[in-house]
Amino acid sequence: MNKETKEQMKKLKKEKKYDEIYFKYGSKEYVKNTPRKIKKQEIKKLFSEGKYIDIYNKYGEEQYNKILLRAMYKEIKENANTLKAVLWRIKENIIAGAKNTAIIATGVLTLGPPTVAVVGAEFVKEEKNKNSVIYEEDIQKYNEKINQYAKEVNAMNLNDIQIYMKVMDDMWGSIQGYGTPQKNIMGFPELDLATEDGYGVCRNMANDVAKKLNAINPNYNARTMVVQMDDNGKYTIANIERNFVSNIQNNEQSEENQEEQNKIIKLEDFTGNHLVTILDSTEDNLIIVLDPTNPGIGIYKDGEITMLNSDKEGEKIFEAKEYVSSFITKGGMENITDVIKDYVKSFEKSNLTNKQIEEKYGIEAQNNSLNYVRQKKNTARAEFLKSIEVKDDKEKSNNEVQKKHEENNKNISQEENER
After folding, report:
1. Cβ contact 178:243 at 8 Å
2. pLDDT at 164 (0 to 100)
3. Which residues of the chain register pLDDT less than 50?
4. According to the model, what pLDDT value does residue 192 have?
5. CB-CB contact of 245 with 179 (8 Å)
6. CA nearest 19: which of 47, 53, 59, 48?
7. How far apart are CA 136 and CA 157, in angstroms?
8. Phi and psi of 291, rounded to 5°?
9. How far is the C-alpha of 240 from the C-alpha of 229, rounded, in Å?
10. pLDDT of residue 302
11. Which end of the chain has fewer CB atoms within 10 angstroms, the N or the C?
12. pLDDT of residue 186
């Protein structure tokens, strides 16, 4: 490309004449010079209009293949039913899409997706079974602790959103903060947050919150969901103070361990890059999404996650990545039916309108709930301290009476001896 052409293209880009770049210089230069937001909007528009060939011509084969998968899914859904479409999509995600990828955490590299799913799931299941024995005492202590915590929370008579916010708030308040987990026990990531010295990342936090919520109310059916956080996945978090632990890993990590770490390949486009907690609201017929790491509430609706803390209405911060990753993180095929059920359930109509959902679960409601539970916690503590004080006074009074009684008996005894 000569200097004159470059200058002309630069001028068109500055004037935002992106289509003219496409017509004059072709698909490659168009894709390279057009802002991501504009490309995303146009692809969405062309897809909704069924103009798949236009997508191929303008954006290339790779983008076309992605769209083809979605187009087939859309067609099955419209002409069959949602469940068949979901099953088809899961199958396609396993046998297509990531031909040169490898599985994280298995140490087995250069495997294709079908092998990845099977090997990864079996590996997780096997490790979890082993760890349930090795860490039996730690697991028991953790469960006893959260059962006691559940009793204390239930005694406060809170509503659902107040419970959600309290659990996330208490989690941050009872650990050192966010940092690379030290124990990193496969199958039991919550154990990294079992004590005040603990610290962890999203997988530890999401599992810890899910365990606590189920101890408080089993009907919540709290579980974790793998998601893909958008590049610009930021939103206004609730008023929960967070602490980030820096350089907390052992600095004496051996070269051998470092080499092992380097072997762990992150398949973020394949398995997701973040973990959230989801739970059922039977009252509102909604699947609620909690992000303990970046405290906020969202909903899983129509197969998509919308965080209610977003500054932009209806902005999709997370993309659900529950398909192939569920084989791995949840340890096998038997759990995939729950994933399908969640997806199908997300299309059910809620008892609330979008406005009512925002009013009930939005950022303002979240912060109001936090204020309430903190105030109630302080009041409960004051009442507890007062009860101890009253008890101490009563015991002190009883001790004085007992002492007086003993002195009287002593005096009587002395008088009898003198006689």
Report:
1. yes
2. 98
3. 94-120, 248-270, 322-328, 331-334
4. 94
5. yes
6. 59
7. 32
8. -110, 90
9. 21
10. 82
11. C
12. 84
Q: Which two tokens stand for residue 410?
A: 């002593």
For residue 105, give Cα distances in angstroms to 124, 234, 263. Answer: 9, 28, 9
What tokens does 324 get?
């192939």
Cβ-defined contacts of 98-103 (< 8 Å, 24+): 98/267, 98/269, 98/270, 101/265, 101/267, 101/270, 102/265, 102/267, 103/265, 103/267, 103/328
- DSSP symbols for 330-397: TTSGGGHHHHHHHHHHTTSPPSS-HHHHHHHHSHHHHHHHHHHHHHHHHHHHHHHHHHHHHHHHHHHH
Tokens 């154990």 -> residue:
191
Enter the pTM of the model: 0.62
Residue 194's SS3 state is coil
State how far the alpha carbon of 276 is from the alpha carbons of 207, 237, 331, 352, 396, in Å: 8, 14, 17, 23, 52
- Rounded to whole angstroms, what are the CA distances from 400 to 124, 260, 393, 411? 64, 69, 10, 16
Instruction: Residue 196: count other Cβ atoms within 10 Å of its Cβ.
Output: 9
Return the structure tokens found at 41.
């909007």
Query: What is the pLDDT, as a whole number, of residue 280?
Result: 96
Place of tokens 């059920």: 341
Where is 88: in which H helix or E strand? Answer: helix 82-95
d(CA 23, CA 279): 49
* Alpha carbon distance, N-terminus to C-terminus of the chain: 128
